[in-house]
Design a protein that fits this description.
Layout: E1 9-12, H1 18-30, H2 34-45, H3 55-74, H4 80-89, H5 91-95, H6 97-106, H7 111-129, H8 145-152, E2 156-158, E3 168-173, H9 184-198, H10 202-207, E4 209-215, E5 222-225, H11 226-236, E6 243-250, H12 256-265, H13 268-271, E7 274-278, H14 281-289, H15 309-323, E8 331-332, E9 340-341, H16 346-349, H17 352-363, H18 365-370, H19 373-389, E10 394-397, E11 402-404, H20 407-422, H21 428-435
Parallel strand pairs: 1-5, 3-4, 4-6, 6-7, 9-10
Antiparallel strand pairs: 2-3, 8-11, 10-11
Helix pairs in contact: 1-12, 3-6, 3-7, 4-7, 6-7, 8-9, 9-11, 11-12, 19-20
Length: 438
């Protein structure tokens, strides 16, 4: 340890080489069709169309999924012992339709791959939490003290809003890493818990997750263990989530082996969607914006300070209360693409639901302006019904979670947008004059 502190990260263990990871990606890409390669490009940039899930397709896929599971068990695959154990313990839990759909969506309805992921899921769950918790949803009260410290540290955060394509964004802040303080098992349990938490959202299941690993800044010595990254990748392969893009932002070439290990260790789906960005804070946020991730979503300022720690802690605390059934309804972790965010500021304005609402109001602005008072009210109610008809909600930031606003607040929000569109834009001179009024 000594008094002279080492600057920057210190790598420990068997990290992958850049040559190995590049070769693996090249082999994978060579075996793909042009259509598959184009799909990857669309996924990474957030311009892919959602798969059309018809009732017939879902029914057919679930039947095929069951056949694939039976085949795995007939072939005596070692990890299937955990699945057999789960089936004997709680058949209904394992057979749950919505639960199985999560794994099908994670593999884009490749039923064989989904069954293998399902099988790995129970093996990993047994390893991390034991037989007693094999057929129950993991909650914070199931986590040990070390894992809870990691969970609340803010090193890993779910960003409070989706990106421009409506995708869930998860952020890992490497400067906060404390691998010497957290065991591999606590890191793995945290990943499992967060992954299952994220998988609760049907929209996230369908659109996938964008992961950002932020390796910029942080002058203190950080010991990064290769085993932690390899084991983290194994947990990810057991979760019912697809990583549609993985961005590694860094400003120190020492981290190249970490980059290679992640790219090689994660599954096929994530490995070929990996993008690395080397540079300063502003250069990396600019690069992320080209992939549909607004810079204002990143809770780290240009000086390297993390600005969202309190919000993250509040989010986790409210989630724990929810798990303990201190309250049961009315909270939302990550707003959906069709939700309308009630509040001020650029992040609210750039939310996909808010953008679409403003466009809808623009198209109906003329009708609103010539309408009588009662007709204007009816038009506002029609807008609200349109939002709710698509599964959207009017949400406010409740300090760690989002909650639905009352009907009067939703009406006021829509009415304000109609009236705001009617006002002519102020000239620069007029704005300056108003700014200097006493």
């Amino acid at each position: 340890e000594g008094s002279g502190e080492v600057q920057g990260p210190v790598l420990q263990g068997d990290f992958a080489s850049e040559q190995d990871s590049n070769a693996q990606v090249a082999r994978t890409m060579a075996g793909m069709s042009q259509e598959e390669r184009a799909r990857i490009l669309y996924d990474v940039h957030g311009v892919s169309e959602d798969l059309n899930e018809t009732p017939e397709m879902i029914t057919r896929s679930l039947a095929s999924f069951e056949e694939e599971l039976n085949q795995l068990q007939m072939n005596n695959i070692p990890q299937s012992d955990a699945l057999r154990m789960a089936m004997a313990k709680d058949h209904a839990y394992v057979q749950n339709r919505s639960f199985r759909l999560q794994f099908l969506r994670a593999e884009s309805f490749d039923t064989k791959a989904a069954a293998q992921r399902f099988d790995r899921h129970f093996k990993m769950k047994l390893q991390l939490f034991g037989q007693e918790k094999l057929t129950k949803d993991i909650v914070q009260d199931d986590l040990d003290e070390d894992t809870m410290e990691y969970l609340y540290s803010g090193r890993y955060q779910n960003l409070p809003l989706r990106d421009k394509s409506g995708r869930h964004v998860s952020l890992y802040i490497m400067k906060l890493a404390n691998f010497s303080g957290n065991s591999d098992i606590s890191v793995m349990r945290r990943i499992f818990y967060n992954g299952m938490l994220n998988a609760e959202s049907v929209e996230t299941q369908k659109k996938g997750v964008v992961v950002i690993m932020w390796g910029i800044g942080g002058k203190k010595s950080r010991r990064l263990s290769a085993s932690t990254f390899w084991k983290s990748a194994e947990v990810q392969k057991s979760l019912p989530l697809k990583i549609v893009a993985f961005h590694f932002c860094y400003d120190n070439m020492i981290l190249r082996p970490v980059l290679s290990t992640i790219q090689l260790g994660f599954d096929f789906f994530a490995g070929v969607r990996f993008r690395a960005h080397y540079g300063t804070h502003s250069e990396c946020t600019d690069a992320l914006q080209s992939f549909g991730i607004p810079a204002n979503l990143i809770p780290i300022d240009s000086e390297g300070a993390v600005t969202s720690k309190d919000y993250h802690v509040a989010q986790m605390e409210k989630r724990r209360k929810y798990e303990r059934q201190e309250f049961q309804t009315g909270i939302v972790m990550i707003p959906g693409s069709f939700d309308i965010l009630v509040g001020k500021g650029k992040p609210f304005q750039e939310h996909p639901g808010n953008i679409e609402l403003r466009e809808w109001i623009r198209r109906h602005q003329t009708n609103y302006e010539v309408a009588q008072k009662y007709e204007k009210k009816n038009l506002v109610l029609r807008v609200i019904a349109m939002v709710k008809g698509r599964g959207g909600r009017f949400l406010k930031d409740d300090g760690g979670y989002w909650s639905e606003v009352e009907a009067e607040v939703a009406c006021a929000k829509v009415g304000h947008l109609f009236r705001d569109k009617k006002r002519p834009p102020k000239s620069a001179a007029a704005k300056k004059k108003l700014a200097h009024r006493p």
